[in-house]
Amino acid sequence: MRKITTIFSRDELRMLYERSNWRGFAAVGFTWTVIVATAAMLVWAASQPTYVAVPMFALGIVVLGGRHLALAILHHEAAHRSLFETQWLNELVGDWLCARPIWNDLKKYRAHHFAHHRRTNQPDDPDLSLVEPFPTTRASVARKLARDLFGLTGLKYLVGRILMDTELVKWTVANDAVWLPRQGRRWWSYPVTFFRNATGALVVNALLLGACWASGHTWLYAVWVLSYVTPFPLFLRIRSLAEHACTEMTTDMFLNTRTTRAGLLARATVAPVRVNYHVEHHVLPGVPYFRLPLMHRMLRERGVVGPPPGYFDVLRIVSSRGVQ
Predict the structure, then answer these.
(1) 8-state DSSP, 5
(2) What is the DSSP letter of 272?
(3) What is the pLDDT of residue 1?
(4) Following CA atoms 19, 97, 197, 69 in sequence, which dihedral angle do they give, to the nearest 10 degrees?
């Protein structure tokens, strides 16, 4: 396994690890600006003829689905304490402006995700169920993507969040549900536990609903929820497949992880906040998002990594079973 110190000098490592408060605010601010601008576009579209309104609504849902994923990546950055230089900003902004709006929990996610980094692609990797079935057939991949696109996976997410916050199921962001023992629990413990765990997400989403109501367009919150149910799960699945599916079952971070080429469309949907630079992220998890492209160029120049595949290449790889 290659040692990081043979690839980068101490000064280079120091530079790569340097974090920035203003860049953290810029990333969070840009994401919420796009969300607000999309809401304004939807309000405008609602007053237009059907042939204008329908494609605008479809575009708005796609954009909002991508911003759900952007919020997920931003709280992922905060979980690594690399979104902001000031650590309390990682905890406060990363949790309340990034994790809670998409019904997540920064501290729980951090514990789960760090276990994934320690044991990537090993039998006890908590995220292994996301990529373990691959490669599979084209028909199987098509069925999975269709379930994502038509909201079945998103509804499963919502039910899963309720079960996890009720502590009926172990907390996870993967696919495997581990049921927790219920011996000794009284009926009233379930709602109490749910509200204790879900209060943050409920408060933030109540504020979003209130903002929509105050603007005179309460229906915008329904669009926000719809974009969470679909296409957010579709984007999330493609992102997960690109990161680890059909990579090697080894502890070598250059082989058990994949960096993927991302153009503007991919960055708006499946690869926001430079999350496509995933080899780089696993090699040096504390490097902030805005330095990952530079790190990738340095690795390329030194012959450590090759040209990355695109997202369509990844989909061909993960659906290659049975293809001659």
Answers:
(1) G
(2) G
(3) 67
(4) -80
Residue 249 C-beta-side C-alpha neighbours within 13 Å: 8
Distance, CA of 289 to CA of 6 (rounded, Å): 23
Burial 301-320 (b: 16+ CB within 10 A, else e): eeebeeebbbbeebbebbbb
Q: Decide: 99 and 106 in contact? Cβ < 8 Å.
A: yes
DSSP state of 213: H
Cβ–Cβ < 8 Å for 60, 41: yes
Q: What is the average pLDDT score of the chain?
A: 96
Buried b (16+ CB within 10 A) or exposed e, 31-45: bbebbeebbeebeeb
In Å, what is the CA distance from 187 to each residue of 42, 70, 183, 228? 43, 37, 11, 30
Using CB atoms within 10 Å of the CB of residue 134, give its burial: 0 to 12 exposed, 13 to 18 middle, 19+ buried.
buried
pLDDT in tens, 42-77: 999 999 999 999 999 999 999 999 999 999 999 999
CB 296 within 8 A of CB 259: yes
pLDDT tens digits, 129-171: 999 999 999 999 999 999 999 999 999 999 999 999 999 999 9
- What SS3 string covers 164-175? HHCCCECCCCCC
Close Cβ partners of 322 (under 8 Å, ≥ 6 residues apart): 137, 138
> CB neighbours of 156 closer than 8 A, spacing ≥ 6?
none
Output the CA–CA distances (angstroms, integers) from residue 249 to 56, 255, 318, in the order listed: 43, 8, 15
Q: Which H or E run includes 181?
A: none
Whether the CB-CB separation of 297 and 281 falls below 8 Å is answered with no
Q: 309, 278 in Cβ contact below 8 A?
A: no
Average pLDDT for 189-201:
97
